[in-house]
Amino acid sequence: MKLQGKKVIALGERDGVQGSAIAACAQSAGADVVLETTYCFV
Amino acid sequence: MTQTLEQPVIRGVRFFLAHTPGLVRYGSKPSRDIARDATIADAIAAHLRGYEAAVSYPPNRAFLGHIHPDTLAAMPQPWFTSVAPGTRWGGHGEIMPEEEFYGVLKICDAFDLVHLEAGFVEEARAALSTHPLLTTADLERLGTGFPEADIVRSCGGSTPALPLYLRNGRLIGCMQAAHEEDTSLAADVLLENLTCKASAVMAMRTLLAQEQLDPLALPYVLNSGEEAVGDRYQRGGGNLAKAVAEMCGCQAATGVDIKGFCCGPVHALTMAGSLVSSRVFSQVAVVGGCALAKLGMKYRGHLQHNQPILEDVLAAVAIVVSADDGVSPRLRLDALGRHTVAAGASQKAIFEHLVSQPLERLGLHFTDVDKYATELHNPEVTEPAGSGNVPQLNYRVIAGLAAMRKEITPAQVPAFVATHGMPGFAPTQGHIASAVPFLGHAVDGLRDGSMQRVMLLAKGSLFLGRMTQMADGMSLLLERNAAGSSEERKQ
Amino acid sequence: MVLLGTPNAESSRLYAMTVTEGDPSWAGALAGVALGLPVYHVMEEAVKTQVAPEVYEEHVALMEMVLEAGDIAQAVQEVRAHTGQGD
User: CB distance C56–A9 less than 8 Å?
Assistant: First the structure.
């Protein structure tokens, strides 16, 4: 599985890893983040 | 004008719970689900607890100061199976039954929007006549009520009123809309805002009376809840604070609302402390009303596990910050933690800003804080719904950060969590669950010397409003007042 | 593809199922809608090895220590296997 060049949806959670944190990781691996969200359940 | 700064202290704090099973249907999640499938209302009704069960429920007892949250750790779970009887009034406040709370709602209603059935009014009047915090003038505001036929007609009108029920399904009144078209004045919005006002009023009255604070000596009130009070031209106009001040006899006060999602109360405490510190005001109250929208938020998980619906209480808080009295816990305004714009969204960044940085500033270690009060949501509410144990997660992150900084070893993480954290016990009432539920116990412990330092940390999910992807966070350090003790304060 | 940041095995499984076979709780807009998207959790080895170490350290490492990373990875791997995605 290669992240390089892939389009990524980052589904983050406030109490886990936030969307923008996932996005930073994906971008550093050469992916293109097309959607970034963070959920909050409380 | 004197040049020195005043030292602000937490002069007092009280809470209020209203047990409102009849209002669970108007929580955001239940009301949307019921609108799609009316049979859900029956399923919910079958899982609503009675008042006695809510009174004796250990997390509620911790919230009201009957027991320390730490004692929950040793109690057999699920806590809702506990049969040890409780009492209405704890050291930090009461839990009021819905029959009385509907009466308080009417008492706080300045626009005759709450119509109560005539027979129910007399029952409420009788029940409230012995309440220590309600006056004859309050009871007069109950009025005489309406015939049931009028209530029924209002609920079926062109701009239908919202029917108000007790847990057993009895129709006891209705909530009118204030405008046919303005969605900000719809019946459900007004019900949310009025329950917020009424619950904050009760918390504030409890605090003023029990701490013997003169309402006339209070110049300023900050309300810190997440409700939106306004109309279509100014949806979040706010200043529910002043409405609460009015109902609490604070004739010399004005107020303002501080809005920050769940972080509101900690921001408000910071501002209250700053106003007292700079001698602008001698004392400032911080209030937070309930979150009706969050009733029954996790009801599906509870139904799936065939357990009672636990989000059946509305919660409110009232705090007074005043000038140093030599005994009350001090707010260390020089050790605020702020999650800044540049900080970044990772948990590491958030907790470094909220915990590491303020402690570094004071030359303290993570273990120098006796208790961290984070988001204290009751895990019995959240876990059945798949939302995890929020306090435990927060404490593990703090401990993890301490381990990353080599202040503790990874093996010491569980002990750190147990010692410096606590089981969650707060109702999932948003801003109310964030740090402040521990404040009553914190003040007690910091006054009697069993604790030296407590850190309040709160986080706000700003991204939910779709104006920014960011979250927010704020922390405050409270410490034992050195004036009354011979122990040297660590600098 | 989808990268998850869910904090436990149960919610990881739920999200993974939702973006592959469809919402298993039949509760939302994706009930019965099979998107068939490749799904990974940001803490899985397959992802971690491709992320710049200092970025991972700053954004994920702390949570990896705190959460049940093994259970989470297993939950998402099982969904991939179940939906024929392979690794």
Answer: no
Range of the domain at C51: 2-82
Q: Is B313 among the domain residues?
A: no
Q: Which residue has the tokens 């410490």?
A: B479
| Rg, Å, chain A Cα set | 10
Written as tens digits, the pLDDT of chain B (491 aa) is: 556 799 999 999 999 999 999 999 999 999 999 999 999 999 999 999 999 999 999 999 999 999 999 999 999 999 999 988 899 999 999 999 999 999 999 999 999 999 999 999 999 999 999 999 999 999 999 999 999 999 999 999 889 999 999 999 999 999 999 999 999 999 999 999 999 999 999 999 999 999 999 999 999 999 999 999 999 999 999 999 999 999 999 999 999 999 999 999 999 999 999 999 999 999 999 999 999 999 999 999 999 999 999 999 999 999 999 999 999 999 999 999 999 999 988 899 999 999 999 999 999 999 999 999 999 999 999 999 888 899 999 999 999 999 999 999 999 999 999 999 999 999 999 999 999 999 999 999 999 999 999 999 999 999 999 999 899 999 999 999 987 544 444 43
Residue B399's domain is classified under what CATH number? Answer: 3.40.47.10
Nearest by CB: A16 against C19, C46, C67: C67
Residues of C in contact with B399 (CB under 8 A): 66
- The residue with tokens 């409110």 is B316
Report DSSP state, residue B290.
Answer: -
Which residue from B345, B382, B459 is facing A20, i.e. has the nearest CB?
B345
Chain B positions contacting chain A at CB under 8 Å are 344-347, 375, 377, 382, 385, 387-388, 390, 393, 428, 430, 433, 459, 461, 463-464, 469, 471
Taking the C-alpha atoms of residue B40 and residue B47, their distance in angstroms, rounded to an integer, is 11
pTM: 0.94
> What's the total number of domains in chain B?
1
CB contact under 8 A, A7 and C56: no
Please report whether residue C87 resides in a domain.
no
Burial of B221 (0-12, 13-18, 19+ CB in 10 A): buried
Non-local (6+) Cβ contacts of B389 within 8 A are B379, B382, B383, B424
Chains that touch A (3 or more CB pairs under 8 A): B, C
The answer to whether residue B362 sits within a structural domain is yes
By CB neighbour count within 10 A (0-12 exposed, 13-18 middle, 19+ buried), where does B468 fall?
exposed
What residues does each domain of chain A span? 7-39
Amino acid at B15: F
- Spatial separation of the C-alpha atoms in residues B47 and B303, rounded to whole Å: 7
Q: In total, how many domains does chain C have?
A: 1
Residue with tokens 């040890």: B84
**B443 within some domain:** yes
Structural domain includes residue B390: yes
Residue C62 lies in a domain: yes
